[in-house]
């Protein structure tokens, strides 16, 4: 006697699952579109500081990805967009030097004044790095920033900057080795489509 009731329940469950998957697909598509659009725009303008997101370093030598970001920041600094360059990134597993310290050494070696380079060696991901940078900037009355990283990273990076009340603009590097590898770049782009909704959800939870 209970079998007829079980069929509608299964159909109802399938309908709910289908709607959830459909909604997830829409959210992913919107997020991925935002990532793609932001990756193609350079918003460079005068700001209080240039923020360079960390990447791997090898015994003090920046990886090609980090070097591309640092070179881009050097160009922005020399063009007069900001009086300060802030480099981020903590100490990776098995390392003795932080990404921020390696980045700072590189910038100073390329004739950026020592007093113009600030290392923030805190954080092992975008969120924690930006939180540390935001605290340092706000403590000195700075708010306007120009964010430097790979193109695929720009949208989520801007979200994190705005989460900590920074007026953020993006300037993606033009010479990253990731951009030279279409398959690798697509992999990072698709991953960002998943990371962006998570970042938004976490920010909303923090505000409640």
List strands and helices in order, with pairings.
Elements: H1 3-39, E1 49-52, E2 57-58, E3 61-62, H2 64-78, E4 85-88, H3 99-109, E5 117-120, H4 126-139, E6 144-148, H5 154-163, E7 167-170, H6 182-207
Parallel strand pairs: 1-4, 1-6, 4-5, 6-7
Antiparallel strand pairs: 2-3
Largest sheet features = 5 strands, parallel
Any idea what the radius of gyration is?
A: 21 Å
**Got a strand count?**
7
Number of helices, where a helix is a run of at least 4 consecutive DSSP H or I residues: 6
Straight-line distance between termini: 47 Å
CATH architecture: 3-Layer(aba) Sandwich
CATH class: Alpha Beta
Mean pLDDT score = 91
**Spatial strand order of the main sheet:** 5-4-1-6-7
CATH fold assignment: Rossmann fold
CATH superfamily: HUPs
Poorly predicted regions are: none
Task: Quote the beta fraction.
Answer: 5-15%
Structural class: alpha/beta
Shape: elongated
How many domains, in number, for the residues?
A: 1
Give the helices and strands as they follow along the chain: HEEEHEHEHEHEH
